[in-house]
Amino acid sequence: MTRSAIKLPAPLAALRTEALQKWAALPPRERLGLTLAGVAVAIALVWMVGVNPALRTLREAPAQIDALDVQLQAMQRMATEARELRGTAPVPATAAAQALKSATERLGEKGRLTVMGDRATLTLTGVNGEVLRAWLTEARSGARARPIEAQLTRGPQGYTGTLVVSLGGAS
Predict the structure, then answer these.
(1) Are 163 and 147 in contact (CB under 8 A)?
(2) Lowest-confidence range among 19-28, 86-95, 135-144?
(3) What does the DSSP assignment read for the chain?
(4) What is the pLDDT of residues 19-42, one digit of tens each?
(5) What is the CB neighbour count within 10 angstroms for residue 170?
(6) pTM score of the predicted model
(7) What is the pLDDT of residues 40-81, one digit of tens each?
(8) Sheet holding 119-127, edge to edge
(9) Which of 168, 165, 161 lies closest to 111 in space, CA to CA?
């Protein structure tokens, strides 16, 4: 497009004309300095907006890919474990209840179990996270119990609240 083909609104056309007159009035040395300053600002903007983010992405991508690979492997292990657990035979209700009671006895006074039908409610008072995880693992493997509801709060002494599990593969 040529300069004459661009139609600007009157106020902008006046500002443009005034700017061109001031530019023409500047000595060549000042015009060169302003041109170089403009080029420097343009280069800085291109660097900040276009190049730097791309370089940062290239630097950070390998670490992110490694972290995602670790997550993928963990998810694949959990999927394999879930398939294996799905394939195991359900435990009779009495055996499941006994396995849960046995696991709960290891909690001592910090855990109380109530079994009603195909559900069991574990009431916790200040249980360490590792101990809770061990109880859940034992409940899952020994009783085929699945957690269906949890109302836990984490305090200075550990977890407090209730955990409801479904027994014997029932949903």
Answers:
(1) yes
(2) 86-95
(3) --GGG----HHHHHHHHHHHHHHHHS-HHHHHHHHHHHHHHHHHHHIIIIIHHHHHHHHHHHHHHHHHHHHHHHHHHHHHHHHHHHHSPPPPHHHHHHHHHHHHHTTGGGEEEEEETTEEEEEEEEE-HHHHHHHHHHHHHHS--EEEEEEEEEETTEEEEEEEEE-TT--
(4) 999 999 999 999 999 999 999 999
(5) 15
(6) 0.51
(7) 999 999 999 999 999 999 999 999 999 999 999 999 999 998
(8) 111-116, 119-127, 158-166, 146-155
(9) 161
Beta bridge partners of 164: 121, 149
Q: Whole-angstrom Cα distance, residue 85 to residue 93?
A: 17
Question: What's the token pair of residue 154?
Answer: 């984490």
Torsion angles phi and psi, residue 106, rounded to 5: -70, -20
Q: How many CA atoms lie less than 13 Å away from 101 in the CB half-sphere?
A: 9
Q: Would you place residue 4 in the very low, low, confident or very high pLDDT band (cuts 50, 70, 90)?
A: low
Q: Name residue 70's amino acid.
A: V
Q: The tokens of 155 are what?
A: 């305090």
The span from the CA of 21 to the CA of 132, in Å, is 80
Residue 158 — left, alpha, or beta (φ > 0 → left; ψ -120 to 50 → alpha)? left
What b/e readout covers 89-101, taking b as 16+ CB neighbours within 10 angstroms? Answer: eebeeeebbebbe
